Amino acid sequence: MKPQKVLEIALGIVTSIGGFLDVGAIATAAEAGSTFGFQLVWSILLGTVCVIALVEMSGRLAAVSKHTLIDGVRERLGFGFLVIPLIAEIAVDFLVLAAEIGGVCIALQLVTGISFQWWALPVAFAIWLLLWKGNFGFIENGISLLGLITLAFVFATIKLHPSLTQLGAGLLPTLPQHDTAHYFFIAVSILGAIISPYLFYFYSSGAIESGWSEEDIGINRWVSGLGMGFGSIVSLGVLAVAALVLYPNGVQVDSYEQAALMLTQPLGICGFWLFAASLGIACFGAALEISLDTAYIVAQSFGWNWGESLHPKQAARFSAVYTVFVFLAATLMMIGIDPLQLTLFSMALTAVILPLVVLPFLILMNDESYVGSHRNGWMSNSVVILIIAMTFVLAIVAIPLEILGG
Amino acid sequence: MRSRYAWMILLLATTTACGTQPSSQDLNKELRTVNSWAATAKMVSLAWLHNRVPEAYTKQTLHKTQETLHQELDTIAKVAPLKHRDTALQQVTQLEQTVQQMETQVDQQNRTALTQTLQDLSNQVQGLQPLVQQSGEQP
């Protein structure tokens, strides 16, 4: 393998690790660990297997067919089919973006003591400015590299010496002794947070922006597999620290103020600052990606010019979408909606729309006119079918669980 | 058609009645929230005493704990069965006052007094446990 390819793979893996955590992953893993100890480890692993498979397919589709996922769905299944997942995805993106902005605002509140609502507008402006002035490479690599700070959770876990038996026991789903509805609600939210539809749209659009071709299929496989795999270790780190620090103390995470305590026991005052920095950077990076994702999917659905590397003048409607979207989402935080509750609600809602997003994979990834000889084999198809079945179950149970256990 | 409406009204009435009726299970849920926030107050104060968290954050968290405990008083007044209501309200009020005291002590940098109040908080949390257990056991 050429050194340049190795470097590209390494950068891809590192940025995937740094970019893995977002407000949903932090909130759901912290709540899971603080309320149920290690019992929900299985849901992070299950989500990771699903996301690796689907991200790899999004990248393969883009590299071989030079079509983003949205382009493929629109062309192959028609605008009539696309419009439903499009509207659902825009709605979910809106709520998740508000929650990500909320995450950054809470991080700033932790550091400064100034209430999170006051930070919503400045944060939205900073996001918009980076999108307006920056390019795809900067957003994808720069912020994700900063996101490596989230490895603090893995470091803290190692320092806390978790029991491998307990961790291992969490790999098998078991029923909790209390709050069964809440347990399943958190499990669904974890899956919704990890199998984020925006990831697939963003990843395939990014592959086109980066000019991937069939030669990059290997890079795609390594980056999606190892990057997402190692990234999920960070999520497991959050759950483990919450299980080892908050759970024994009887603190169940109902707000980010409570979650902020989790790194102080293993890492002292540095742990507090690292938590704030991890939350802020992870959410800021995710907010950039979600804003771009919304602009991507709207522009691609309507056939407009799109591209983060284009000057806003060359893709005016694309730039207008993220501009409006970022500032509208910030208003949810300005009016004082609880960021953690919004996060958990959005994650459950994400689970509801998953079947609409996953179903087209089965069609596109078996269509030779798109993926040629790189179409899915029986194993990949079996995985997609299992994921579709699982997402249908999640979609059906998400709302009742939200009511009963949310 | 008419019978369908009747069923719907009956279902709605039952749901509404269940939603507002006092129950030990609901009380247990609220008391666990109270416990969790009391544990938060204890943990954040201990962390402040060991210089593991900044003062602004400590005050903010203690203030949020007070607010939540105050909201819990309203909820408990609605959901607690009559036989547990007074005890529950009295104990949560006491916790709220203790947390308020802790916030003042952090504000005044009075570490000695805070250490003493933390002991009171622990005793109050322990005093709450029998009620948590009783409400958890009853259907």
Task: Write up this protein.
The complex is a heterodimer of chains A (406) and B (139). Chain A has 406 residues and is mostly helical. Chain A has 18 helices and no strands. Chain A is globular and about 55 Å long. Helices cover 88% and strands 0% of the residues of chain B. Chain B has helices at 2-20, 24-49, 55-79, 82-107, 111-137. The longest helix of chain B is centred in the last third of the chain and has 27 residues, at 111-137. Chain B is elongated, with a radius of gyration of 19 Å. Chain B starts with a helix and ends with a helix. The model of chain B is unreliable at 10-19 (pLDDT under 50).
Oligomer: heterodimer
Shape of chain A from CA axes? globular
Structural class of chain B: mainly alpha
Q: Helix-strand pattern of chain B, N to C?
A: HHHHH
pLDDT < 50 stretches of chain A: none
Instruction: Quote the beta fraction of chain A.
Output: under 5%
The residue ranges of chain B in which pLDDT falls below 50 over 5 or more consecutive positions are 10-19
Tally of alpha and pi helices of chain B: 5
Arithmetic mean of pLDDT of chain B:
85
Distance between the termini of chain B: 37 Å
Mean of residue pLDDT of chain A? 91
Q: What is the C-alpha radius of gyration of chain B, as a whole number of Å?
A: 19 Å
Rg over CA atoms of chain A: 20 Å
Shape of chain B: elongated
Beta-strand content estimate of chain B: under 5%
Q: Which two chains share the most extensive interface?
A: A-B, 20 and 23 residues
Give keywords.
heterodimer, A: about 400 residues, mainly alpha, 18 helices, globular, B: about 140 residues
